[in-house]
Amino acid sequence: MENVIRPLIVVGGSVLLTLLIGWATDLLLRKADARHSETPLWGLLRRARIPYQLVLCAALLRGSYDQAKLLEAHRVGIGRTLTLVLIGSVAWLVIRIAAAIVETSYSRYARAHRDPARVRRVRTQVSLIMRVVAAVVGVVAAAAMLLTFPAMRAAGASLLASAGILGIVAGVAAQSTLANLFAGLQIAFGDMVRIGDTVVVDGEWGTVEEITLTFLTVRTWDERRITMPVSYFTSKPFENWSRGTPQMTGTVFWHLDHSAPVEPMREKLRDILRECPAWDGRDYTLAVTDSTPNTLQVRALVTAKDSDDLWTVRVAVREQMIRWLSAEHPYALPRVNTADAALPPGGVPSPDGAPRRAHEPPRPGRG
Questions:
Q1: pLDDT tens for each residue of 306-346
Q2: What end-to-end distance do the CA atoms of the chain give, in Å?
Q3: Per residue in 141-168, is it b (16+ CB within 10 Å) or e — as a string?
Q4: Domains, the chain, ranges and CATH?
Q5: From CA 59, how far away is CA 144, in angstroms rounded?
Q6: In the chain, which stretches have pLDDT less than 70?
Q7: Residue 6 contacts by C-beta under 8 Å, 6 or more apart in sequence?
Q8: Exposed, middle or buried: residue 28 (CB in 10 Å: 0-12, 13-18, 19+)?
Q9: What is the number of helices (H) and of strands (E) in the chain?
C-alpha cells in the first residue's frame, strides 16, 4: 500500500503545488497589470507562465523523486530526463523574461520619442538583440544538457584541446554565414537600414519588413517579398529614402508644345497641391528644363512628408495637369505639325541670290 500512496503523494503533491504557485503568481501579475496600465511589463510577463510552471514542476519532481520509490530500475534515466526538462524550461523562461523586459523598454522609448526614424532604428536593434539573446541562451542550455551525460563530461578535456582546430575549420567552412552574422550586427548598430525604411535595391522599390542576423526581407509595392542576405547591404550601394528625415522631394515631367502656357500652369499646380492632402506644403516649383525641335520639357517639383505621400502627390499632379491642359489648352499638348512652315519676311532667296515670293516657282538655272 505504501508503494502506491508514496508515489501519489510525491507526484500529486508536486503537481498540485506547481498549479497553486502558478495560479497565485498569475493572479499577482494580473493585479499588477491592472494597477500599472502605463507599462506592458506585467502583461508580457504573464506570457511566461507556462515555462514558469514547468520549471516549478520539474524542480519539485527532481528534488522529491528519490522519495517516491517509483520505477527503481529506471531511477537514473528518469532523473536525467527531469534534469533535461528543468534546463530546457529554465532557458525558455529566461528568453520570455528577457523578451518582456526588452519589449517594455522599446514601448517606453517609442512613447517618449516622436521621431519615426529613431523609433525604427531602436526597433531594429531590439529585434536583433532578442535573436542574439535567444541564440546564446539556447547554446548554453544545449551545452548544459550535454554535460549531464557522464560521457560528455569525460570528453570535455579533449573537446577543449581540439577547440582551436575545430574553430578554424568551422570558420573557413561557414565563412559566408559568419559574414552575414557580422553584417547583421553592423546593420543593427550602424544604423544603415532599419525596419520600415523605404529602399531601392536592384531596381526594386519597397519597404524593409524584417531584419535577422542572416537575411533581410523587403516588401515591394505589389506585395512581393524579396529576401536578400544582409551582407548585400554592407558590400553594395543601395538607396535608402528614409535615411535621416523621411521628407522627400519628387519630380513630375511633361513634354508639351512650344506654345504651352507655362505661367498658367504654375497657377494650376498651386491649386492642385492645395487640394491634395498628401502635399506637406513645404515647397513647389514649375520650370522649363529642356527643349527639342518639337516639344518643351516642363518639370514640376513637389514635396511630401514621406515616400508614400510623395507617390500620391506626383500621380495626382500628373493626372490633373494633363486633364486641365486637354480641357483648357489643347494646343499645348504635343502634336505632329503638318501645316506649311511660316516663311520669313521678304520671301525665300532663290538659288541665284534674288528674292522670290513664297509661292513663286524656282527660276531655271543659267546654262
A1: 878 888 999 999 999 999 999 999 888 887 666 665 666 66
A2: 144
A3: beebbeeeeeeeeeeeeeeeeeeeeeee
A4: 2-112 (no CATH), 178-240 (2.30.30.60), 248-332 (3.30.70.100)
A5: 16
A6: 1-8, 10, 65-75, 114-115, 117-118, 121, 151-186, 188-191, 244-245, 336-367
A7: 67, 68, 69, 70
A8: exposed
A9: 12, 10
